[in-house]
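Record type: monomer structure entry
Structure origin: computed from sequence
Chain ID: A
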Amino acid sequence: MLSHGNITSNAIASVDAVKITAADRALSILPLSHMFEMTIDMALIHVGASIVYARSLLPDTLFRLLATQNITCMVLVPQALQLFMNGIEREVRRQKLEKQWETLHKIARRVPFQWRHYLFRSVHKRFGGHFRLFVSGGAYLSPKLGYAWEEMGFRILQGYGATECSPVISANPLNDHTLESVGRPIPGVEIRIEADNEIQVRGPNVALGYWQNPEATAAAFQNGWYSTGDLGYLDKRNNLYLKGRKKNLIVLANGMNVYPEDVENVLHNQPTVKDAAVFGLTEKDQGPMMHAVLLMDDASQAKAVIQNANKQLASHQQIKGFTIWSEKDFPRTHTLKVKRQEVFEMLPQLRR
């Protein structure tokens, strides 16, 4: 149950965290039923900014709106950022400019941020020439992807939230951030880390509880603190880092803990892997073993992918088996997160 006070406090705090102004024009592509989009829209309206709603998510439609509507910012999920990047890189390959593209990125890493857009004028032109930042949330953002955008002169602000927190909990500061972190608590919000590394949140944005479910409310909300179910830690500068979901944590027979998200992130960096989900499978009376479900166009590359990934993983994180997902994509939520439970339930059938 979210009150008007919960939502409005979060919208106002988000304005301060992201530095939205009346001059901004945002392109809206997320479902309006999602708290992330709803709160940011309220924040935009609160400061007198403009919102352009996309009727279609086709890349051509989005690029046309970006080019013609003087768009300055977008709120999106990481997969949408990846889709935009895929479209840009496809055009680079079509023009056979791969070497120049790689060289520009190398140069950009040594150039102050405010000058980088000169190196990537053609990309900024496709975005209309007024674009200043993306706000990414709702799922894990690969730092590699985030830095690739920042090398092109597009600021990436990563945020973290939960529906029960209206939803924004933390966000990267505009000019002082690391994309490995999901930022610092927004104004008015407190974060603490419990002994088991679970993230707890307190503030005016925290929900009243769950509708007609006192047991779930008592379990998640105690003395004003909401238990997120996420695991993480804070550094000395109060930057929050996520490790994964508490319920996804895999405990091996030797007592070692494995965060499947850590293993998935290594797999995501393999060029031939479109997406991956990692589970701990118990077989033949042994403890859980790392098993990867891979979404790939070329299944013949799967063995090489696992071998390359294992070279980068610690001994207790080693992937012992894999399955190729048989459909074009994983089942996903409306914010494009993988529905892990559905994938897990399909595993026995896929492995026959």
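Annotation 1: The longest helix spans residues 78-94.
Annotation 2: The mean pLDDT is 94.
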